[in-house]
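Much of the work behind modern protein science is quiet bookkeeping, done one molecule at a time. The protein below has been through that process, and both of its lines are reproduced in full.


***
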Amino acid sequence: MSPAAWEHCEVTNRTYVSLTQPGGQNLHVSLYLRHYRLNLHTLVQFKSLLLYHCQNILRKGSYNSLLDPRSSRSKELDDAIWRVWTFCDLFAVWKERECDFTGQIAWLQGNIAPRSPLGSPDASDFVSVLFDPPSSFAQVNRGGLTLAQLRDMVEIWTAMATLLEFLRNRTR
C-alpha cells in the first residue's frame, strides 16, 4: 500500500467494534482490508475511464502509464488519484469545508494539524478540518507536495472535470 493510499484509508476509516471473528482474526482488520480492496477496485475503474475518455486531456506520459500499470509513472499517477480522493473526503461540500482554505493549504504543505484548537474557537473553526483533524492528517505530505505531485493532482482534477462535464449539461 502506498503512503497516499494509506492516508486515504486512514482519513476514510470507519470505526468498528473490535470483535474477534472465528479463527481469531480481528473484525476491524478484516473490514479495513475489505474497504481497501473495494477502493482499489474503484481506482482501477477510474483509471479505465481516464484511459478511454481522457486521452486528449492527459499528458502523453500519464496516458502511456495507464497502458503500463507496472511503470513507476503509473504508481505516481495512482498516488495523485489517492491524494485527490483524500482531498475530496477531507474538504467535501457536505462537510461544509469547501472554503476551508487554511486547512487545504495546511494539507497540501504537509503541516501536521494541532490536536486541539488554540484559544477560544469562533464559529468558523468548528467547520475547519483543523478543529479536529484525523490523526493521519497531512502525514504523507510532510515537507509539502512537490511541484510534480501537484501537477499530477491538477491533471487528475482536470480529467475528472472532463469526465463529469455531461452532468453539468443534464442538471441545467
